[in-house]
Amino acid sequence: MTHLLTAVVALAAGWTLGHRTRPHPARTRACSTCDEAAVRGEFTAFHQLIAGLDLPDDPRNTA
Fold first, then answer.
1. How far is CA 40 from CA 11, 20, 37, 47, 63, in A?
2. How many Å separate Cα 17 from the centre of its chain?
3. Are 56 and 62 in contact (CB under 8 A)?
4. pLDDT beneath 50: ranges in the chain
């Protein structure tokens, strides 16, 4: 039983150290103009998707 407990503790410690010491990607900061352009593009794509769907004008009047 002691060997099993030792193995579990060793695995947990190794996993923790492995994840704490791995390289993290550098965070890039985009300019506000770039952010606005990206959001505008997402909204445009969303509205094009919605426009292509065959939806009733008022979903409450489905009868």
1. 47, 37, 5, 11, 36
2. 25
3. yes
4. none
Please say whether the beta carbons of 9 and 2 come within 8 A: no
Q: Which two tokens stand for residue 43?
A: 């909204």
Cut 0.70: pTM above it: no
Residue 52 in tokens:
């292509």
Query: Measured between alpha carbons, how far is 9 from 50 in angstroms, rounded to an integer?
Result: 52
Distance CA 34, CA 55 (A): 33
Tokens coding 62: 């489905």
Question: How far apart are the C-alpha atoms of 50 and 43, rounded to whole Å?
Answer: 10
pLDDT computed for residue 43 by the predictor: 94
